[in-house]
Amino acid sequence: MDSFVEQLKRGTEEEFTEESVWDGSAVNTTSSSLPAIYLPLLPRNLRHPTTRGRKATEFQETKKACLNYIQDALLQHQWQRAAEFMTNYLETLENTSAEKRMAAPEVIWRIGTEILCHHSKSSIEEFNYFAEQMKNLGVKRYLKVCLEHVFHLLCNGLIDEAYQNLSLAEGWRYGEQTTAQDKELKLIQAYKGLLDYYNWTKKRTAMLELDGNFADSVEQEMHSFFRQAAVNLREIIKIPGVWDPFVKSYVDLLEFYEDYDEVRQVLSEYAYNSKFPPNPNAHVYYYQFLKRQGESKKTLMSVLKILHEIVPSHELMLDICQLQKSKLQILQICFTPRLHSQEGKISDSEEICEETQLCPFESIWCFGFLHASLMFTRCL
Amino acid sequence: MEEEDTRDYSEPCVQCSVVNWGLTDEGRFYCKSCHNVIERTKEVLTSDVVPNTKIQSISRGFRKRKKIDKGWEWYVCEGFQYILKKQAEALQTLGVCPKMKDEILCNFWRLYLQKSRQAYCTTPASYASKALSISDVSTDVETEPERISIHGLSSFSESDGDLQTESSFGHVSSIGKASARETTSVCSGSVDGDSYLLKRKKGNLRMSMPMTLSFCYIALLWLREPVTLSDLLRFVIDGHIPYLNAFQCFPEEMKLYGADLKIFRVESWPVYEDVHNKMSELSAFLDLPCFPAITDSCFLHPNILCIKYLMEANLPDELHNWTCRVVKKINFGEADFLTLDPVNKSARKVKYDVLAVAIIIVVLKLLFILDDQYEWLYANFAGKRNQKNKEGCLWFDFKKWYKVIKKSVDVEQKKLDEERARCLWKCEKPLFYSSKEKSVVLKKRQMVVNLQRQFGTLSGSMQVAEKQSPSSFQLNWAEENTDGNCFHGHILEGILQEKGNSLTTMNTKYWLCSVKLCNEKICGQLTHYKESDFPQSYQFVLNLFSFLLRVPASLIHEEVCLIEHKLFKTKRHRK
After folding, report:
1. How far is CA A30 from the centre of its chain?
2. Which residue of A has its CA nearest to B529?
């Protein structure tokens, strides 16, 4: 039996490197952690980049590592492990670096809510406790935390608690911070208005069931809710944005009290004010309101036409078929190519079809595809 | 406390013209040498403000009611003394000889205080500390410190930010300093906290938290205790020796704030090289004589330390012969080389554990080359042979060893990383820079504690694991284990051959880690370790020992290069 070395001598023919050549003079680094720059003409003292800023202490490095562990655990849905590391990560609130100290509450809030939402042992009380602690952590985030806390409560169906929290948050004042957190405050007021509306609907249904003297007190409460809701909702609708649920609630309130002018004004503002982002629902609401009011076909058609510009495939387009008697006009309206709407007045239906083949098919496709059967039954 | 109150009064006694005041029970000043009682009384804090308080404040020191209760006056070295005491006690519980604390460490500490002129000398830098009496050994009679010394004054007025600028002592320098300090308004709990961090005088060695470990190590080295520096640092990180938040052992009255934080707060673990360098500086500073010799039978001798690391790395016992041979060849086993001699400044300060580990690596390189080829081929050979002959001694199979070690080291490394991430740095005693910060810091602390409690309950039953009892060995390989994971008994057949009287390797090749060593003054180190330049097997072995010792691989690599340079000196010069 051959010895191992003889086998080796037979097997390997190539010579392995004997020495790793390392010329010490070429590599002059004071900080071996960073690679040197090998430019031959560069003076020696410029060859190594220097680190800038304060070196991170091990405390900060371990906290960073801890955060990585938490993130891994969260991604793998290991809530218990995440909670474990969280107990250690919380120390970062006392970090010596002010910069990291400022950034800490946000991170902790996010991670904490995530864990508490999903952990099997956590309950809504735990969440409430956590939210309270986070609110006290810093004034700059107070309203934001309040708002998110309210969302969480709403998602879990705790409407009364959410309402309480909103009322508390609405009354919060803290000097400059109140103006700095203006947006959050407005949102809080808006949601409070929404919940007032919700309470109002409850009172309304209650009132219908009850009768007699109970009905009076309930009615009074109903009215007070209306007043509160109306104020807040009106405020938020003024700001450009997408406020569909608020608008709907507000319209509902106003319609009950028969303030139709206000409704008209609000809805047209919401739909047609160019400052607001384009929102098909706005037009839908306006159209529905006008229909309820029994407006003329002409006004209804004009609203629908504008809606058609935005969403040609909307199901309300079917109403066009009802409103318009002339089939040709229906086709005209429905199949007017958006891009070439200015040029070439279409007179013939065949020409329409030719023309429409050139432009984006979207309008026809969507419309025809989605509502083909309906369209044909109504038109023809 | 009496001294504090009477310190500021420097009028000589009417009768005996000596400035040596004390306080009677009623609070009146009396002269200690002639017992003459004067009218002056200790100032009592009153809430009503007298318009002429300025006059009083000049000589007395305006004592506003401070938001922070000042507590005792204490000096930074007193704080370190407490910490050292705790550390020595911890080492004692770990099994170190009790002589270390009471005789060795204590005396080294006193020597340090004397050399740095903080105590035990005729012209101290500051007043003699009262707390020296706390150490167990009976104290010497302290020399009477001078009441008024320029240095003492300036440190006092510097640290007490509330002191009015005019001081009745008339030292211009201190006035200037005091007025400058007032604007910064950072005070410290200790009397000399601020000045402690200023640029040190030439030749003076400043105390710091890593230095406490240097003290401990020097004491251990003097007694030749079987604790290496890497073991010591490992115990520190594992929490068996107080280091992080060691200031918790201070008594309640010693308030810690302001500049003290920079001295006593720990934000990073001690680094091996740092502590080692400080140790050599310290031994030189203390003018210590040559340490007790490290002989063949001593634990720190490479021959014996190699056994420990061979066992821990699960390598065959036969390798020990080879390590002894290498040690003999390069004369690293001589007591002159190994023993720390502070007098001889040019002598190399030996890192015993790193040296032992480096020797093992050199031996592995001698036998297996570690070039990513030879050892694997040999492993295949040995593996086949082991399969054929089940009885008898097993040949050392590098591949199997690699798999076993890699698996367990990976597991341990992962655990270690998690432990590091889990480490809690803050303690119940919060630290703050100034009274303004105090309320914020306390509130934050309370909040953190609350949240930790909340999430702690969510983490479930596997809370704080039992703190493992400290052990010298991190990896244990039992021979009785039948799954064949223990390689201690394996033999190195197949790669050795008889040559005359002794065994030698069949392999005649060897690769040097570095051809030329760098100049330490220019580069800062002797070698530069770049992983990609070296074979994977070599990196693996380096990383293994780097994990065991908790030192960076580059440190071990440097030691390996040095050994190789000595070992192959003749061969290199021939070239």
Report:
1. 50
2. A32
Pairing of strands B37-41, B496-499: unpaired
Whether B11 contacts B168, CB under 8 Å: no
Give the closest residue to B541 by CA, choosing from B396, B359, B350.
Answer: B359
DSSP assigned state of B203: T
Query: For residue B413, what pLDDT is reported?
Result: 93
Distance CA B337, CA B300 (A): 12
Size (chain B), residues? 575
Q: Do B425 and A59 touch (CB under 8 A)?
A: yes
Q: Which residues make Cβ contacts (< 8 Å) with residue B327, sequence separation at least 6?
A: B302, B303, B306, B333, B359
Q: How far is A128 from chain B (nearest CA, A)?
A: 12
In this complex, do A65 and B554 lie within 8 Å of one another by their Cβ atoms? no
Identity (one letter) of the amino acid at B216?
C
Q: What ipTM does the predicted assembly reach?
A: 0.72
Report d(CA A117, CA A72) in Å as an integer.
Answer: 17
Is residue B301 a contact partner of residue B295, using CB atoms and an 8 Å limit? yes
**How do residues B335-356 score in pLDDT, each as one tens digit?**
888 888 888 888 888 899 999 9
- Interface contacts (A, B; CB < 8 Å): 154
User: Residue B461: is it exposed, middle or buried by C-beta count within 10 angstroms (0-12/13-18/19+)?
Assistant: exposed
| pLDDT tens digits, B364-413 | 999 888 888 888 988 898 888 888 887 778 888 899 999 999 999 999 99
Asked if A115's CB is within 8 angstroms of B267's CB, the reply is no
Q: Which residues, numbered 136 to 155 in chain A, qualify as contacts with chain B under a Cβ-Cβ cut-off of 8 Å? A: 136-137
Least confident range from A122-131, A208-217, B480-489: namely B480-489
B415: its two tokens: 């655990």
pLDDT reported for residue B220: 92
Using a CB–CB cutoff of 8 Å, tell me whether A206 touches chain B. Answer: no
Considering only alpha carbons, which residue of chain A is nearest residue B450? A133
What's the gap between Cα A141 and its chain centre?
A: 18
Taken in order A143, A145, A151, A153, is the CA torsion positive or negative? negative
pLDDT tens-digit series, residues B117-174? 777 777 665 443 333 333 333 333 333 232 222 233 333 233 332 222 222 222 333 3
Query: pLDDT exceeding 70 applies to what percent of chain B?
Result: 77
For position B35, what pLDDT does the model report? 73
What does the alpha-carbon distance between residue B176 and residue B149 come to, in Å, rounded to a whole number? 16
